[in-house]
Every structure is written in C-alpha cells, then in structure tokens.
Amino acid sequence: MVVTKSLAKTASQSALNQSVQFLKGVGPKRSEIFTKLGIDTIRDVLFYFPRDYKDRTRIQRISEAKIGAEITIQGRVLGIQTRMARSRKSILEIFVGDGTGAIAATWFNQPFLANKFHVGDMVFLHGKVGAYKYLQLLGPEYEVIRENEIDVKEGSVVPVYSLTEHMSQTHFRKIMKMAVHQFAGHIEEILPKEITKKNQLVSINDAVRNIHFPGTFENLEHARCRLIYEELFILELAMALRRRGIKEETGISFKIGANVDTHIRNLIPFALTNAQERVINEITEDMRSSKPMNRLLQGDVGSGKTVVAIYAILAAIANGYQVAFMTPTEILAKQHFQTIQKYLEHSHVRIQLLTGDTNSRQKKDNLDQIKTGQIDLIIGTHALIEETVQFRQLGLVVIDEQHKFGVVQRLKLKKKGLRPDVLIMTATPIPRTLSLTLFGDLDISMLDEMPPGRSPVRTIWVTQDKEKNAYGFIKGEIAKGRQVFIVYPLVEESESFDLKSAVTEARRLQADVFPTLRVGLLHGQMKQAEKDKVMMDFKEKRYDILVSTVIIEVGIDIPNATVMVIVHAERFGLSQLHQLRGRIGRGNEQSYCLLFGNPNSNVSAERLKIMTRTHDGFKIAEMDFRLRGPGEFFGTRQHGLPELKISDLMKDFSILKKARDDAFELVSEDPQLTMVTHLKIRQKVLETFKDRLELINV
Ligand code: ADP
Ligand code: MG
Q1: 8 Å CB contact between 243 and 237
Q2: pLDDT category of residue 601 using cuts at 50, 70 and 90
Q3: Confidence of residue 661 (pLDDT cuts 50, 70, 90)
Q4: Which atom of ligand 1 is nearest to the CA of 271?
Q5: Average pLDDT over residues 288-307
Q6: How far apart are CA 445 and CA 443, in angstroms?
Q7: How does 510-545 read in b/e, with b if 16+ C-beta sit within 10 Å?
Q8: Nearest ligand, CA of residue 299?
Q9: Quick one: which ligand is closest to 557's CA?
Q10: How far is the CA of 598 from the centre of ligand 2 (A)?
C-alpha cells in the first residue's frame, strides 16, 4: 500500500536510504519540496521531527462548555454563514455539533476562511467560550479532518512540522504516517545494549514511531528522552574520543620547582588571589605532566587572567621552551605586549610582537629570530598561524579570548610545536552547559574571585528623558580628571534603522554637548594604524571621551576610564553588555555604566534590568544563553558543534550530564570503540564529526 510491492517486501536498512521519491505521494515534484526541507532519503523523513504537537487528549463535550473556559471540541460542521456587521466587518460563523450540543465558531474579517469548511466536515476547535446570542468560540484554532485521512484514527497527540508553504501539515502528516508505518520497524539500533538498558531507553524504532505519532504525552516523553540521549551521547563520545586522543599523546614534562616558582613570584607586584593560586596550581600540574595540557581558563573581565598566563609563560621559558601568545586583535596584542613587557622588565626574557602590520623587513628578521630560538615569547594576532612562522622549540601556546578563534585555528597553532601545552583564556564566561559540550575536550579552570580593592561598577538604566542629566554627570566626572567611553551599535547612519551611529554622534557630541572637551572616535572601518593611534591617544589622556563602536569590546585596559555609556543598549546581547562594562572599573575610582536604552520588547527590557542587578559574569552568561539560545550565543559552527536536531542544551541538561558520563566511561573501557558492540556507534560518531573535531587515531 505504501511503496512498490517489491520494495515493501525487502524494506530494510537499504530501503531507508532510498530516495524519498519511493514513498507514495512523493513524486519528483514533491521531492523538490522535501529537498528544501533537507530531506533526501526515507531515513531523513523519519528523522524529520515535529516542532510541536496538538493536544487532542482532552476533547470535551460541547454540552460541558462553560463561558470563559478554554475548550477543545470535536464535531461536525452543521452550517456555515457569512454576514456583514453594522461596522461593515464581515463575520464568518460555522456551527458545529457533537451530539451533545452545538456551538458557533466566529471569525471577523476573514471571509476567505469560509472556503476551508464544508457542511459535514469533521473539525477540531480550540478556543475560549463566549456567548453572543448563543455559545461561541471567537477566532478559535481549528483543524478540518477529511474522512479519508488517517488522522482521524490516529490518537490524540498530533504532530506539527516546520514546513514550507507548498506543503500542508495534513499532507505531510499523511506521508509521514505511511513512512512510519512502513519503515519505522527497520531503523538500526546504534546504542550499545548496556546503555539503553542502564538508562531505560525505548528502542530507536519505538522512539521514531512515537516522536511522530505518540498517542499519549507519556509515550512522547519516552521517545524524546531516547532521541535526545542519542544525540547528546554521540556528541559527548566525540568529545571523549578527542580528549582521550590528546591524553594519550606524550607532550612536554616541564620542571617547575621551588626555584622557578620563587623566581616568577618575584616578578609579580601583588599578592595573588586565592582563585589565582588555585588556577596556577592546576596549570603547573598540567605542565609537569607528560600529557599535553589542554586547559580553558575562564575568568570575568578584570579577574586577573594575564598574570596567571605570565606564570605559565615564565615556567615554560625557564624550561628552555618558546611560547606563542595569540590574541584576536592587534590592539590587544600590543596591550598584552606592553603589560607583559612591564612585568618582565627585570628578567632576561626576550619578547617580541608580531602583527599583520609589522613591516616586511622587520618581519623577516623577527621570523628568523623565532626560528633560531633567539626569541622566547612571541605575542601576536592570527599572524602567528601563518606558515612562515616557525619555532625552534614551541612549548606553550596561550590563546586569549578563545571564542573568537575556532577549533581549527587552535589546532593549526598547536601543530607548530611538538605537542605543546595549550592554555586558552576567555573573558566571556561560558555557561557550564556549553563548556561541557563545546569545550568537552578541555579541562576548565575558573577565576571566580576579583582582586581586592575593587568596587563593582554601578550600572544605571537611563531612559530618554534623563539623557541630559547623564551628560551633566559625565561632565562632572571628566572635571575630576576621569575619562569616558560612549559606545554605539553602528559605524554610520543607516537608513533602515533609526539608530544613532558613532560617526555622526561623535560630531554632534563634540559640537553641541561637549564643546570644550576632547572627543575621539574609534570604529571598525578605520585603518589599523588609525585605530591604534586613537586608542593610544585615549590611553594617554589626549581625549576625554572616546566615541566608539563595539570594537573596544575585548580586553582594553584603561584604568582612568570610569564611565561607560552604551547607547541603544537594547540592541546588545547581555554578554556583550557585560563585556563592555568590563572595560571600566579597572582602577580604584568608583565607575559607572550608563545604559541608554528604550527597549521595545520584554526580552530587551529584561536584559537591561539584569545588567543593573548583577555583576557576576557567569550568571549573566547563563541568562544570556537562556534568552538567546545556544545558536546565537556565539556562532556555533566555528566551534565544531553540530546543529542539534532535538536537544536543547539548557532544558535537557540532566540528560546531557548522563550522556556525558556514559560516553566518557565507554571510551575509557574501549578507547577506540573497536569492540563489536560499539562499531555502529563509532561509525555514527565518525560520520557526524570527522571533519570538525579531528578525531585523533580513530
Ligand atoms: P583580565 O585579563 O582577567 O581581564 P587582568 O589580568 O588584565 O584581568 O587584570 C586586571 C587588573 O587587575 C590588572 O591591572 C592587574 O594588574 C590587576 N590584578 C590582577 N591580579 C591582581 C591581584 N591579585 N591583586 C591586585 N591586582 C591584581
Ligand atoms: Mg585580559
């Protein structure tokens, strides 16, 4: 009944890989629509999961309808009428009966709906009961069920799919129904038995059947659990394999004794925080071990990551190795260069800056020195990845602001040494949920304590009518000798949005608001040299105010700047706002973050409120993630995270944890997944991840 007879007989694995055209009702033309949905094979159809479900489990009798209550009813169309109201609005009414009573469904100004219904049709209606001259449902959700459609017999939890305009839910459901009926008994189980048993997971065939046509919500839940588990288990297996691969390599065992330790501490002008001590401990343990370090250091802006990195850098150099320090921008490279140079003033460490704009003559000299080992520490942008950069003995790679770099870049730099240790630093606190998955192959250290003597930035949400006061406040701060950032979301005025831009606003602020003050301008379309000059000028107090786009987002350190104004704050994500706020509050003076914002949605208003309430970067990251979802949190693609079809990292966190534990346990028992019972899952992991994660040795 479903496909050609011969196919039906041999329906099996290979049948699942057949083109979707083999399904009845899907000819060449329809199959184009399927292609648009990303569906090529019958297997793809089965794994095209609903985005939602309609609840028909509680169908009520019309006789039970109470005014003001929401109900779902099923009945037949008894009559249809369209009329004009006095207001000249058209009114469509259909009258539906279910044997216990009758009710009207009423729509205003949608005369075209009349064509959807015919007398005698079976309909489902869901809506709130009102009364006019008789009981009615005003603009209810509706669905018409034609007699010959399978739905009628099909249970009470009805799937809803994401479709294109050329494919109706009803039609798609019908095709799905047939596909499930015919093929959902033939999907191969890839999870090892011990795993399904331990977690009490339903079989893949039941899961696929029930994800589409569950009958009850309980069945649906079991199906979802199974499918979510499988998806996350495969992801975590990839992480476990990678981690295992790294752990099995032999890297450098650095010797870090009391001598080296004292030497390094003598260069640090302050007492370390407990968090810094703890993290330095974790790092030195990694470095001493013969297994390569692969550690992510997370710490909020200002938590003092640099000095931790310096400890690791000096330890490596003390062992006769070279260190590469990679930053996402030139400005940051220069800043790190200067900071580190200051720390190392009284040491013999030879340190060098390599950026895109180092001139070619100079660069060639630099490269020679790196190659021959005359340089101990080289700081630079992704210029460090270029093939021309060769080290004599690279022992440690430090990467700042990890999320700007992808897995691939990380690996490239790493390959310049013989299994060097890797320390990645990020000022974007990453929610635990994400770090488990995105960075599942990394060990994680957290700097969760601020250096002493810092008062938290005061954050104030400034509505439009108060902007003048804010300008006055800014003048007062500048009169005290402080400096101010004013950040705009755009470089230039854009026609499509009514947004203020950095360029025009810098002009306006200088001319109208702060005529006696010095206003600088910084934006991403300026040449590198110009940007650096403006930044340096600001640092050296040649400007009172720096008007900028978000390019000052990362890592800039200007302790004298105590006010951060963010204009159109409603346009920024939470993490970004927090990052920007982190640019101030770096000195001893009280700092202020002023959010100019007129949010037009609850979500953006919520963001601003959260900002005024909390300073904890981890909390903010978690909330940002909740508000925006993992996709937008940062581009997932570059992190080697595949699109998740059914799992939600946040909501399904408890399943994620289980899947992760099981995956790591499995890999510790069978490091290459070569046992017969693991071959299928191994195949699946490879298919899903081979390009993205460079699974080692598998
Ligand atoms: P991050 O890179 O984590 O944003 P930095 O390493 O730039 O933070 O440190 C921020 C500021 O705090 C720097 O000026 C640094 O010198 C200072 N600092 C770091 N650790 C300490 C500490 N233990 N005690 C006092 N000041 C510290
Ligand atoms: Mg930093």
Answers
A1: no
A2: confident
A3: very high
A4: 23
A5: 89
A6: 7
A7: beebbeebbbbbbbeebeeeebbebbeebbeeebbb
A8: 1
A9: 1
A10: 31
Atom of ligand 1 nearest to the CA of 586: 11
Amino acid at 403: H
What CA–CA distance (Å, rounded) separates 598 from 487? Answer: 15
Give 467's Cβ-side CA count (13 Å radius).
14
Distance 305 CA to ligand 2 centre (A): 6
Residue of 267, 450, 455, 557 to mutate, ligand 1, most atoms within 8 A of C-beta: 557
Ligand 1: atom nearest CA of 270 is 24
Query: Is the pLDDT assigned to residue 449 strictly greater than 80?
Result: yes
Q: Are 483 and 562 in contact (CB under 8 A)?
A: yes
The pLDDT of residue 322 is 96
Asked which of 119-123, 282-286, 621-625 is least confident by mean pLDDT, the reply is 621-625
Distance CA 121, CA 142 (A): 12
| pLDDT over 90 (residue 416) | no
Candidate of 265, 303, 450 to mutate for ligand 1, largest count of ligand atoms within 8 Å of Cβ: 303
Q: Quick check: 653 pLDDT over 90?
A: no
Q: Is 205 exposed, middle or buried (0-12, 13-18, 19+ CB in 10 A)?
A: middle
State pLDDT tens for residues 88-100.
788 999 999 999 9
Return the pLDDT at 86.
79
Residue range 102-150, pLDDT digits in tens: 999 999 888 888 888 999 998 989 889 998 888 999 888 888 876 655 4
At residue 593 the predicted structure's pLDDT band, cuts being 50, 70 and 90, is very high
- Token code pair at residue 206: 């039941």
What is the distance in A from the centroid of ligand 1 to the CA of 414?
A: 27
Place of tokens 């640019």: 583
Residue 532 has pLDDT above 50, yes or no: yes
Query: Does residue 304 line the site of ligand 1, with CB under 6 A?
Result: yes
Are 492 and 501 contacting, i.e. CB atoms less than 8 angstroms apart? Answer: yes
d(CA 622, CA 432) in angstroms, rounded, equals: 8
* pLDDT tens for each residue of 158-183: 899 998 878 888 789 889 989 999 99
- Domain annotation for the chain: domains and CATH numbers: 1-55+173-188 (1.10.150), 58-154 (2.40.50.140), 275-281+292-447 (3.40.50.300), 458-614 (3.40.50.300)
Q: Does the beta carbon of 306 lie inside 6 Å of ligand 1?
A: yes
Q: Which helix (DSSP H) or strand (DSSP E) does residue 522 occupy? A: strand 519-522
User: For a substitution probing ligand 1, which of 297, 306, 340, 539 has the most ligand atoms within 8 Å of its CB?
Assistant: 306
Distances (CA, A) of 220 to 157, 281, 636, 653: 9, 48, 28, 18
